[in-house]
Sequence to fold (464 residues):
Amino acid sequence: MTLGAASRPDPDSVPLLDPGSRPQRRLARLLHGDGLEQRALRGSLWTIVGFGSSQGLRLASNLILTRLLFPEIFGVMALIMVVIQGLNNFSDVGVGPAIMQSRRGDDRDFLNTAFTMQAVRGVMLWLACVVLAVPVARFYDTPELAWYLPVAGFISVINGLLTTRLEEANRHLQLGLLTRIELASSALSIVLTVALAAVMRSAWALVIGMVIGAAIKWLLAERLLPGERNRFRWDRSAVAELVGFGKWIFPSTIVGFGIAQGDRAILGKYLTLDELGIYNIAYFLASFPLQLAIAVIWRLMIPVYREYHYDPSPMLTHRLRRIHWGLTGGFLAVLVTMAALGPWIVALLYDPRYESAGMVLPMIACATIPQIVMLSYDQAALAGGDSRRFLAVTAIRAALFLSLYWAGVHFAGLPGALAGQALGAMLAYPAVVWIARRHRVWDPLHDAVFLSAGALVALLVLWV
Fold:
């Protein structure tokens, strides 16, 4: 069964909340109802508002920092984030998704055990960061990394102590307060980072600001989220469930690192720090639609797919299809806008030192089109507890991406690398279809329409 084959359901049975016109009544149902589509819409809106506002704050910070700091500093930070994200991925056992999909996701023993596992993991990550600092500095021939990494790695300890009330709110699509916490912590950390950069004029400002930002988020989450505070707890049945779910998540996040950070890990060996800094600026702007899509889909689609697994009725199938089409269309529209206006945006916002980012931005944006179209399918596997097939698909995607990206940059420079990225995503499509069909969420018409439109847009942007 595919989503495209679903029969059209009867009209919604939610009571009308407004006596006005039909559009007004429908809007009232969507904004105030408790059904799947209503909660999904509100969750999407909160996530979009939160992510958009957060990225707006980051952009403002970025514009100020690029006038205070030189491009090579952003190249150094890109390498720091490769290491930290790599360590996170190499130790992630999927506690967040496990809480969101588990029937015990509201059980205190289960949540406290998950919190304990995360806290222990955070300390281990920091120690690993300390041990790896010197070898990484030598590999990238950047001695200052040996000093930056142990400090930046302390963010793992702080993140390991984040309350599981964050996942509880995500589980129930209660995203309003989460969005406010994210925005407040982002705003405060950005102000502090800019102040530090104005005084220090070095990468230390960004490193220290990142750690302070994590501490601010921890404090706000502890103070503002309702519910019981976490305690250290070790429940064997909870550990068994978390490990059972995470035994396939763990290797999938390892290979997922290749998709998330593989580009900068590879480019760090081929580009100078200046060039890597320019790429990082272009990537920050070009990846906005993709990062927004990831944020919305991760928060929204696991709960939505979970309900669909429990009740795959024609009505729910139709609503899921509408959600899927709406999200993909919206994200692609933002991506097309960014690709078309990229050079003008960079010229308007940045000083001449970063002008070449305007040429790179459209290429990065177009290379992410296949990822946008296929993004949500693997979340259906996580919602159904099928982390083994999720691993298989992630491994295929990572292997294709890394091999073709490396071959592209080796033989044709950055344009070749980005062409390899797009080709790798398309070659992974059969694996994506396999997992989507397994969980009855594949929509071939959706894919055909949006992949064709994306290919046409890429041709117009890059060659016209």
